[in-house]
Design brief:
- Helix 1 crosses helix 5 and helix 1 packs across helix 12.
- The chain folds into two domains: 130 residues, Aspartate/ornithine carbamoyltransferase (Rossmann fold); 157 residues, Aspartate/ornithine carbamoyltransferase (Rossmann fold).
- The strands form two sheets. A five-stranded parallel β-sheet has the order 7-6-5-8-9. The chain has a four-stranded parallel β-sheet with strand order 2-1-3-4, sandwiched between helices.
- The chain is an alpha/beta fold.
- 43% of the residues lie in helices and 14% in strands.
- It starts with 16 loop residues before the first helix and ends with a helix.
- The relative contact order is 0.16.
- The structure holds phosphoric acid mono(formamide)ester (CP) and norvaline.
- GO terms for molecular function: amino acid binding; ornithine carbamoyltransferase activity.
Length: 310
Amino acid sequence: SVDLKGKDLLTLAEYSPETIRELVQKAKEMKEAYLNGEIIAPLKGKTLGMIFEKSSTRTRVSFETGMFQLGGQALFLSSRDLQIGRGEPVSDTAKVLSQYVDAIMIRTFAHETVEELAEHATIPVINGLTDLHHPCQALADLLTILEVKGTLKGLKLAYIGDGNNVAHSLLIACAKVGMDVAVATPPSYAPNEEIVSLAKGFADASGSTISITNDPIEAVTNADVIYADVWTSMGQEEENEQRLKDFAGFQVNKELVAHAKADYMFLHCLPAHREEEVTAEIIDGPNSYVFQEAGNRMHAQKALLVELLG
Ligand code: CP
Ligand code: NVA
């Protein structure tokens, strides 16, 4: 069974397929218990420090309420107010916070910042999104797919858009659990090659496939899950105008989803821009599970917190 006590969650690549499957199963059970009104407080007296260098609605609130529900407490730490924002080294911050809290969640820009924090912290570090990875999102996504489809292995997920953090974490997570992944991006927005080759290795081991293309129709053909994310991620705002041009043709709309399976499900990490990466008709339509997905962030992270800290 899962033994994550004291470990970090940086990318999901470091977790075995069994661990990921068990985490998702545990999240499902904890969600059912929560919906039945059961109160379990295994993290009484524990605290989670949450460092944010970027905005957040879901990650912040789901970690904060999740910790509270488990009997613990979370602290919201904006980098604007921390000394880290005035140049205190990440390594010093890690050593200091390790004396006060039981785990740290961080949302930042460079993935190396999370690695550095984890290297110097003596407590678990959880990646709450970097420019390269968003592992907590992928855990919630697997939970949502499992709830809707009843299985993970053998399904095909098509990701349409920018080959960055969310795409990378889906590549890793889906490949680990035996799902086929097709990623379609404009030519200069392909996913990171190292992460793709890592995912290909995981896919070989689980018997699934990874394909990277510039053709959204090819990617969604026969897909069980269609996934979109914003075209302009946090920190890229000045590229917005160029990106709107570059991503023309990569909108998830009625014409595109017609190539997927009839019972395809639509997912999006949110926040979304209607009529940019996805039409309102699709994201607000009957095949969309984006709010169940957002809700599942809390359940997936509660399962993770219990395993890291319990
Ligand atoms: N999907 C996600 O991480 O949302 P937030 O940016 O609101 O945390
Ligand atoms: N790719 C998006 C995801 C937000 C949850 C970003 O990095 O802004």
